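Hi U.,

Before I forget, here's the chain from the pilot set. I'm dumping it here mostly so it's searchable later in email.
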Amino acid sequence: MDKRGTALVAVVGGLVIFGVKLGAYFMSGSVALLSDALESIVNIAASCLMFYSIYISGLPADDDHHYGHEKIENISSLVEGLFILTAALFIMHTAIERIASPVELTEIESALGVSLFATAMNGGLSWLLGVKARESDSMALEGDAKHLLSDVITSVGVVVGLYVAHITGLTIMDPVLALIVAVMIVRMGVVLVLKSARGLMDRHSLDVEEKIMALLESHSSQYVDFHDVKTRVSGNQVFAELHLSVDGSLTVQEAHDFTDHLEEDLKNELPEVTITIHVEPPVNEQNKSASLS
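Structure:
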């Protein structure tokens, strides 16, 4: 199954899980379970955005986007983060109303069983997305997998808390748990927004830079030096550039052939990296040329 197929499974699975969780809320009247169900709406929206972004990011570079479309995944995850924050505010509002006007919980044991079933489905979906993310090195799939995993952890906490409330009779624990869930969702949303924003700001990849320099060192006998190694991350692609000083006695063709060889080696070692090498004469020869002019 490719990335698009996995994203489609996430959308369909999210719809099914939302229906199960909503059923648990109607069975019990628990606002904590309602908050859990509402978070599934965020999951569905996130999965839809992920599906669309994966489709667009897979399109080849064109006349309007010379560097491809990889950053669409960062844009979609930024919007997803805003959705998460909006859902958290709604949950807080509902929980505060329920604290002011408590409602007796009904059929709580059956509802919790249904909720746990939905949580298990969510866990399975998170695992599948995580596996596919590692196979395809997809930031979008990895983000959705972690999002669903956090939903699983939150749901387990809600179920445990509500069961304690059912045993002790302290119904106020229901909206209090909803508020705790909302705070966790706020944190998730803020982290996602900040991470997405960093991805849009052309952050560098230290790991890729170190690998490029290591590979260049293995060819050190064939050039004078290198400098100004720079990288920028765009989705799961990395664009790199560097300056390479070569022997001034080399012909243009010889320098070109050598850089082609380097680029091929780098592509074999780092297939996700697109590199541009600027060839120049050694510094002392540049200075000599400048003095003569």
